[in-house]
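Posting for a labmate who doesn't have an account.
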Amino acid sequence: MVKLIGIGDNGKESLLPQYIQWIEESEVLVGGERVLSYFPDYQGEKVVIKGGIQAIAEKLQKETRPTVVLASGDPLFFGIGSYLAKKINIEVYPYVSSIQLAFAKMGESWQDAFVVSVHGRSMKGLAQRIDGKRKIALLTDTENNPSRIADYLLSFGMTEYRAFVAENLEGEGEKTGWYELEEMRQHEFSPLNVVILKRIAEGPSWPLGIEDEEFSQRKPDKGLITKKEIRVLSLYALKLQKDSTIWDIGTCTGSIAIEAARLAPEGQVFAIEKNEPDLENCFQNQRKFRADITAIHGKAPDGLESFPDPDAIFIGGTGGEMVDLIKVCGKRLKKGGRIVLNAATIENLYRANEAFAQAGYQTSIMHAQISRSKPILGMNRFVPLNPIYIITAERKEEANE
């Protein structure tokens, strides 16, 4: 059986005598170049892990000699352990994770921390994932380093956080310290580090149904926004999960996309808008409401080919391409997904319903007539918003592929 042993940056000093004995008795030692360098006198075969670990797993499946795999920290904590455990029969002997060590240096508990890895991963969507969390631990890499993280957070105005950076834990040049984000942005750090964000002040918060006036909109021609009440009903109709992939077609100010991102913080949101001034408003709103979505300039269905297949699609504007648009969306929507389309006219309602039927979808329609109170001469009257048809389309079992 292969033994997977966690090791610290202080090398052999982090290992129990029993672990060292297993390594000495093994005939194959597998690990990254750094951890293998701790054993210069090893007598067996050394196998360096470079790039992906699929090839290593395949090699280990065929290996009959006594084998030890070395990995930094806890191999089952954002490490190779979970992957190898699915492929081969292994025994895991973890060391302390870098997150545990960092919190120990910080002198604070970590059971209530939100842990996220940006090691070898894009930071896209990080803003909505961490917004409002009290403690956040970030596993970094050379590209997504503390300086870049600070720059990213400041771009979304997340100034209520202060950072603790732990470098080279238990290794040579160990260094820990607190940094303001502006200070961290300009500082250089060792490639081996952990970043912990601690909220030191209350940040802004926005419940579902952000007020229309909060959004940057086209001026003086306001009103090109999915109104708060319609927005909430439409988002409900989409039945979003926390990890949904969502399209917002005709995003305009981005109100639907932004609220969708906050409802699905572990997912992805992709938006498209044909009017550049509206798209600029969308970008401003993303930064204000801390929703790191992908928004592009284009007239759907052109441009949708660059988006991954969605779990849910919202269509707020069709630009006269309704039939083709629904056909494209129908082909790309994942099994069990939903399309929600807002129509302001009975003509578009009819066209959409027909197009959905031709594409093999069943529809349900909600006619929303919303009025808001408005004071007048010491009294109140109701001012109606434009009536909206909210069309929800779901794929039939026998739908056309």
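Reply:
Got it, the structure tokens are right above this. DSSP finds 13 helices and 19 strands in the chain.
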